[in-house]
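Tokens in:
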């Protein structure tokens, strides 16, 4: 097994894409998420398309509705291992 190497390629995901991915994995439509958060559906759509910034307060609100930590939405590409080695 020593001949195998760990893959180094990572998929880059934006904060908007992370919102969409988690929303879809949980089976919510944008309209459903809008009702749960009070954030207009048009704003959720713009966030998912990276047309507007997610922002900390929106991240907290969305994370609560999506049952995840806000950091997952705000920093989807953060490499914990790389940061701890620095």
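Residues out:
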């Amino acid at each position: 097994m020593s001949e195998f190497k760990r893959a180094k390629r990572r998929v880059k995901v934006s904060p908007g894409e992370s919102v969409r991915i988690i929303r879809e994995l949980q089976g919510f439509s944008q309209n459903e998420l809008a009702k749960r958060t009070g954030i207009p559906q048009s704003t959720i759509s713009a966030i998912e398309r990276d047309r507007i910034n997610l922002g900390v307060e929106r991240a907290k609100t969305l994370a609560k509705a999506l049952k995840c930590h806000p950091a997952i939405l705000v920093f989807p590409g953060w490499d914990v291992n790389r940061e701890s080695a620095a």
